[in-house]
């Protein structure tokens, strides 16, 4: 055993133990970051995964544990977006994206069984009609089906059954 007055005690294998400990801490931190913003919800027998990453907020209609983003059957909204997902009787998902939350510029919908509703906010007459239709369709679904609302900015999830 070697004792140094400048840096304290050294133990046999000390560098290996410190390297292992550092590697383990880095590995634990990476796992913590990958799974920290991932939550699971069950609504009307559909299990949702909501996962906030630096690329956006991923929503899948199944439990997703992957480390990489999903390749198919997902919805991605921006990290400041808002989405309402209604679960219809035949398990079809009706996805409503609120373009006023972030301009809906970061939305990618690759859900297999869904109806997607959004509109732009240019202000012309056609867009105003689409926005009224969007609100009417949302209200119709809201009175009939359970749904999940995802506020990606603050990772707040509301379930309405």
Structural notes for this entry:
With 161 residues, the protein is of the alpha+beta class. It is 28% helix and 34% strand. The chain has 3 helices and 12 strands, in the order ββαββββββαββαββ. The protein has helices at 14-36, 99-102, 125-142; strands spanning 2-4, 8-10, 38-43, 46-53, 56-60, 75-77, 82-87, 93-97, 108-109, 114-117, 147-151, 156-160. The strands form 3 sheets. It has a 5-stranded antiparallel β-sheet with strand order 3-4-5-6-9. A hairpin with a 3-residue loop joins β1 (2-4) and β2 (8-10). The N and C termini lie far apart (67 Å). The model has no long low-confidence stretch (mean pLDDT 82).
Percent helix range: 25-40%
Low-confidence stretches: none
Per DSSP, the total helix count is 3
Largest beta sheet: strand ordering: 3-4-5-6-9
Question: Which overall shape is indicated by the principal axes computed on the Cα atoms?
Answer: elongated
Structural class: alpha+beta
Distance between termini? Answer: 67 Å
Main sheet attributes: strand count, strand direction, barrel closure:
5 strands, antiparallel
Task: List SSEs in N-to-C order.
Answer: EEHEEEEEEHEEHEE
Radius of gyration: 23 Å
How many β-strand runs? 12
Strand content: 25-35%
Mean pLDDT score, rounded? 82
